[in-house]
Amino acid sequence: MSTLDATRAELALLVLYLNKAEARDKICRAIQYGSKFLSNGEPGTAQNVDKSTSLARKVFRLFKFVNDLHALISPPAQGTPLSLILLGKSKNALLSSFLFLDQIVWASRTGIYKNKERAELISRISLYCWLGSSTCTTLIELAELQRLSKSMKKLEKGLKGKNKYEDEQYQIKLKKSNDRLLALIKSSMDLVVAVGLLQLAPKKVTPRVTGALGFITSLISCYQLLPTPAKAKTT
After folding, report:
1. Environment class of 219 (CB within 10 Å of its CB; exposed 0-12, middle 13-18, buried 19+)
2. 60 by DSSP, 3-state: which?
3. What's the CA gap between 222 and 137, in Å, rounded?
4. What is the pLDDT of residue 205?
5. CA–CA separation, 56 vs 133, rounded Å?
6. Contact at 8 Å (CB) between 218 and 33?
7. DSSP 134-198
8. Is the pTM of this model over 0.85?
């Protein structure tokens, strides 16, 4: 393949990536939380970027609550334990509620919805919903990692001394395990971000800590949304 062909292929992947509304949202999220880290809650250019980007992101999320509403009423995968089903449905309900209420917050900040006091209350309720969904996600990822670990150990015993890294089934499970671990790290950090946004521990979780963790989780989300060939090159 010539250099020009390789460049075209790379640009095609980039176009495919940037065509995703979710990818653009996460890029904006990285800018938002990076600005929050720089401003540390102090007035100035960085704080203005933080606020304006936060408002812009809400447009990307209009009607996005339908995704989790659909997942909420969809049947679970066969063989999923009841505890994980309940956690998954709780996560869907909480995330859908967060995204729906966030639309009212957007309407308030644009001047469509006039009741500012109620909008502030709705904003806090929506953040508590996000905190709850992040908690459910963290518990789900922990449980799924445990299930994968047991499955991988069982597979290792069946290989009887063979190189497990050469076994296709083991490689698939290992990749799933790595993906789950990354998702666990992200959801755990997002828990702290939610605590920071709600100012539940203002002395420990400062705007700078919130910004730093939010920036990291945004980068993780950007990586998770990469097309498979591009993701493979970064690992």
Report:
1. middle
2. helix
3. 18
4. 95
5. 23
6. yes
7. HHHHHHHHHHHHHHHHHHHHHHHHHHTTS-GGG-HHHHHHHHHHHHHHHHHHHHHHHHHHHHHHH
8. yes
Separation between Cα atoms, residue 174 and residue 185, nearest integer Å? 17
User: What's the CA gap between 214 and 208, in Å, rounded?
Assistant: 10
Distance CA 101, CA 121 (A): 10
Residues 19, 123: Cα–Cα separation, whole Å: 29
pLDDT digits (tens, 9 = 90+) for 47-106: 999 999 999 898 888 889 999 999 999 998 888 899 999 999 999 999 999 999 999 999
Coil, helix or strand for 34? helix
Core vs surface per residue 193-206: b (16+ CB within 10 A) or e? bbbbbbeeeeeebb
- What would the DSSP string read from start to end of 221-235? HHHHTS-HHHHHHH-
| CA quadruple 141, 143, 149, 154: dihedral sign | negative
Report the half-sphere exposure of 142 (CA within 13 A, side-chain side). 10
C-alpha–C-alpha distance, residues 213 and 186, integer Å: 9
Amino acid at 6: A
